[in-house]
Each structure stands twice: as structure tokens, then as C-alpha cells.
Amino acid sequence: MLKVGVLGAGHLGKIHLRLLNQSDKYELVGFYDPDEINAKKVAAEFGYSHYENINNLIDTVDVVDIVTPTLSHFDCAKKSIEKGRHIFIEKPITNTLEEAEELLELSKKHGVKGQVGHVERFNPAFLAVKDKIENPMFIETHRLAEFNPRGTDVPVVLDLMIHDIDAILSVVPSEVEKINASGVSVISQSPDIANARIQFKNGCVANLTSSRISLKNMRKSRFFQRDAYISVDFLEKKVEVVKMKDAPENPGDFDMILQNAEGEKKQIYFENPEIDVNNAILDELETFADAINNDTTPIVSLEQGTNALRVALQIIESFKD
């Protein structure tokens, strides 16, 4: 079992602590939180070992799980990597691209692995259809959330949209060519609503919308590709796969047939992929343990987390144009 320590015992940090404590792939050593009152409260309520010194905790473990505010990600990760510790770091990987690139170089220098907490990659709905998404040419995403002061220290792009940016980059086999975006601040000092249009070199276009001041929650993505439409509801954990194939010469009474202007006939049919219920956060943590034990590349590597941050920051920069 890998010895693991958690940095940060806020809302998400407590979830990580609970899951790591029940995992058979980790031995939870303890946690560090700079808020002494909160740290003692968490330790007393759940019985986790509380370290008063961050370096003492890092020295004791094999893996450091960083669940702190984004602004402190870099310092926590750098301390851990320089001590030869593998790191799991919540999204976004860091606050700046320069910090992320430095962590990449440090991880290579010290021979440690890192994974970024883009949890939607482990969403059972996305897992059910990811292999069916082949060279999509148009993608549309909507990620809307009711207002919550937690997370408003960063633009909505880094808070919410980055989930969809990472998922899109994982299925589009092409580099980004052009980005146009707009963002509006309504309640926060940083944009609360954003829309971005990402154009890839292979011609694929992705249209992303995110809001953290909506009246209802929504997390939906739609992928359009040759002869197929795939819809993923990350919130409800549902999928819809609609495909087309050449129509049979003698279609059945209940076959759905479309004919285009050229006279070509296509049959529409539906697939219902099986969705395996899982705990996405536990899965991302445990697959990271597997990557360490088997010396394989983590599912969401530091490099991929850096790429997602790069695109997110380009979107934010595009607000100024």
C-alpha cells in the first residue's frame, strides 16, 4: 500500500480523506491544513491524524494529495516533488502556465509521477461512450451551476469550463488553431459567465458555455461526428448514442429512414451503452496508485493538465480582445 498524505481539509479535501481512508490501495497517514481551527475540528470529528507541519507530513508519505486552493497548488507540489513524492493535484493544475510547466520539468527531473484531478474523465457516462467518440467535428458543451461563493476566487473558465476543456482535448486528435471567447462578471470580480469557440487544426469546432449564476445545474456535452451523434449528461450520468448506416433495400415497418437531397437513404438506430456505476473521485485516486505501482502514465497526466490550463488561459486572454 502507498502511504498518502492530504494537503487541505476543506469541502473536497474531506471527501478525499474519507475515500483514501477506505481505499485498499492507500494507507492514509494524515493531513495538513493551515487553518488550525478547521484542522482540529476535522481531526476530532473523523479521527484522521493532523500534522501541524507540512514538511513533516510530506517526509512521511509516498504520495501527496493536494486539495488546497489553486493559488497554493504550485508551492505544495514543488515541495512534494523536490522531496521525491508522487503528487495528485486538484484541477486546475496551477494558477499560471509558467508554474505548470515548471512542475512538469521538476517531475521529470526527480522521476515522480503526477495526476491532475479532472474528475469528469472518470464520470461513468463519459467512460461509457468515450471509445465511441471518433474524430468529432462539432462539439457543444453546457456547464451551468447555481451560485456558490466557493470557487469564485478564479474565473468561471478555471472553475467550471476547464472540466469540458480537458474532456474535449482528450477526444479531439488535433491541436488548437484558434480561440474566440467572451466573458461577463455579474457577481464576482472575475467572469461568472463565459462562452468560447475553439477551432482545431483538423476542422473540428467546439462551442463551450459555462455559468456559475444559473437557476439550475446542467452538465451536458454533445459530440457530432460522421454518421453519429453522442450526448453525455455528466450530471444525471446518462448517455444517448444515435447512429446512421446505409438503409437496407427492404426496410422494416419500424425502421427509421432518412433520405438526403441526393437520394441517399440512411437508417437511424440507437445504441444504449451500459453505464457502470462508480465513485469517480475514488477511481481517479486509485488509478493513480495503479500508475505508480505499474510504472505507467497516469490517465490525466501533468502534461494533459497543463494543456487544459493553457487553453483555459487562452480563453481568458481572449476576453480582452
From TrEMBL:
InterPro entries noted in UniProt: Gfo/Idh/MocA-like_OxRdtase_C (IPR004104), Gfo/Idh/MocA-like_OxRdtase_N (IPR000683), Gfo/Idh/MocA_Oxidoreductases (IPR051450), NAD(P)-bd_dom_sf (IPR036291)
Start and end residues of each Gfo/Idh/MocA-like oxidoreductase C-terminal domain: 150-320
Xref: Gene3D superfamilies: Dihydrodipicolinate Reductase, domain 2, NAD(P)-binding Rossmann-like Domain
Domain Gfo/Idh/MocA-like oxidoreductase N-terminal: 2-118
Matching Pfam families: GFO_IDH_MocA (PF01408), GFO_IDH_MocA_C (PF02894)
Top-level taxon: Bacteria
One GO MF term: nucleotide binding
PANTHER family linked to this entry: BILIVERDIN REDUCTASE A
Name of the protein this chain belongs to: Oxidoreductase domain protein
Annotated source species: Allomuricauda ruestringensis (strain DSM 13258 / CIP 107369 / LMG 19739 / B1)
Lineage: Bacteria, Pseudomonadati, Bacteroidota, Flavobacteriia, Flavobacteriales
